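Retro notes
What went well: the complex prediction finally ran end to end.
Inputs used:
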Amino acid sequence: KAGVTQTPRYLIKTRGQQVTLSCSPISGHRSVSWYQQTPGQGLQFLFEYFSETQRNKGNFPGRFSGRQFSNSRSEMNVSTLELGDSALYLCASSERGGQPQHFGDGTRLSIL
Amino acid sequence: GQQLNQSPQSMFIQEGEDVSMNCTSSSIFNTWLWYKQDPGEGPVLLIALYKAGELTSNGRLTAQFGITRKDSFLNISASIPSDVGIYFCAGDHAGNNRKLIWGLGTSLAVNP
């Protein structure tokens, strides 16, 4: 069974731009969660999607948004990028939104 | 953001030694999870705990869900070089909120 797939693996953007990250969950998993990982703050929860609906949301500004498609694939969008948005963005999937969650290898976003 | 208290922050041990790390929280969790993350990869689930007092093993790894539901520990016996990496604890609050709260990790180095 294929794991969680995230694309792209690496991205370099400049301040003010926007970016879209993609996540394909494990087949059969309907819940997708997104996390931001930085050395100082560790992993911070962004949001969770289930059946195309956002069910939970972390404490991030509105520049961070996401969506989920009918095939459970999810995208995360960050607009008006800031230097502090540089991080590893991780996607995790689970069957129905409970635990455990299984993670992809992340997208490393660097803002110049 | 909210975080768990994970200790120690780092460990440097000799191959063959046993390792112990723990996580504490000021609030109750209904699930505790332990993950390992290698450089350039996403966290990989090691052990999931769902019940207070539960003791679960996965090979040389053993983890326990504290009776108070506010702490958990992970033991690694007879460490080997491939145990090197960062170990994270994560907790899921009781109730409908399914987002994971994370510790800042324990970095383990093993001297062969």
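What we learned: Chain B touches chain A through 25 residues (CB under 8 Å).
What to try next: split runs per interface for comparison.
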